[in-house]
Amino acid sequence: MVREPDELADGIAVVSEAKRITVLSGAGISTDSGIPDFRGPNGLWTRDPKAERLSSFQAYRDDPEVRRAAWQARLTHPVWQARPNDAHRALVALERAGRLVSLVTQNIDGLHQRAGSAAVLELHGSMRDTVCLQCNERRPMAEALERVAAGNPDPTCRVCGGILKSATISFGQPLERAVLEAARDAVLASDLMLAVGSSLSVQPAAGLVGIAARAGATVVICNASETPYDDMAAIVLRGPLGEVLPALVS
Questions:
Q1: Gyration radius of the chain over CA positions
Q2: What is the three-class DSSP state of 49?
Q3: Any catalytic annotation for residue 88?
Q4: Are 109 and 30 in contact (CB under 8 A)?
Q5: Which pLDDT tens digits describe the chain residue by residue (250 residues)?
Q6: pTM of the model as a whole
Q7: What is the three-class DSSP state of 40?
Q8: What residue spans of the chain are helical by DSSP H?
Q9: Rounded to 5 degrees, what angle do the CA atoms 14, 17, 23 make?
């Protein structure tokens, strides 16, 4: 664990002095809840590179076999048993203290909201809903999973018969412009950008850190491994988020 006491103390001081904080969270904040990340040493795509194909929009749209595999993965996904952890709850405390401008997340698991956070912007959507690729009908994911469990390997939209997909942003899909613009506005209104549990390797989400730094905000990064933006940060902490975040916002 790379976390010197002085670095943590400096991080606590920086966070305590900030008045307007935007948080960018990634998959690393949910690993303590039993949800594997993607690119870490034990990440989903690290252990099974073929699984990344399930996140390709074109492959999902065009290949029924990919869709069937994706539905089986959703059916057994650990998110359905996952509960928020201390890192999620620390960010709830930050919001309730009135110092959080926005919680911008790359995560699709909904655990921030389940912990009690309200000011959440989901850059990559949510796997707790489905959306029809033809008519845009949005429904709770549980409805489609009931059909999968009953033996339908590739359920279609009950309104128009179109392809159903989780309401997430896959590779090859653009982010929702309104959500991305709201995230940028939050960053520009902040004096501190706190990036937690993100490899900061996926754009345009990672670019929010650069926007913050160029706008004069202090950047604090908490992640298990190095990121491309570490040089922009005033403080970089490598400790477990379940320990680091409660300490930073206490």
A1: 19
A2: helix
A3: no
A4: yes
A5: 334 447 899 999 999 999 999 999 999 999 999 998 655 555 554 455 566 667 899 999 999 999 999 999 999 999 999 999 999 999 999 999 999 999 999 999 999 999 999 999 999 999 999 999 999 999 999 999 999 999 999 999 999 999 999 999 998 899 999 999 999 999 999 999 999 999 999 999 999 999 999 999 999 999 999 999 999 999 999 989 999 999 998 7
A6: 0.89
A7: coil
A8: 5-17, 44-47, 57-62, 64-75, 86-96, 111-115, 141-149, 177-188, 207-214, 241-249
A9: 65
Catalytic residue among 77, 88, 112, 124: 124
Handedness of CA 140, 104, 198, 16 (dihedral sign): negative
SS3 218: strand
What are the tokens at 48?
Answer: 């099974």
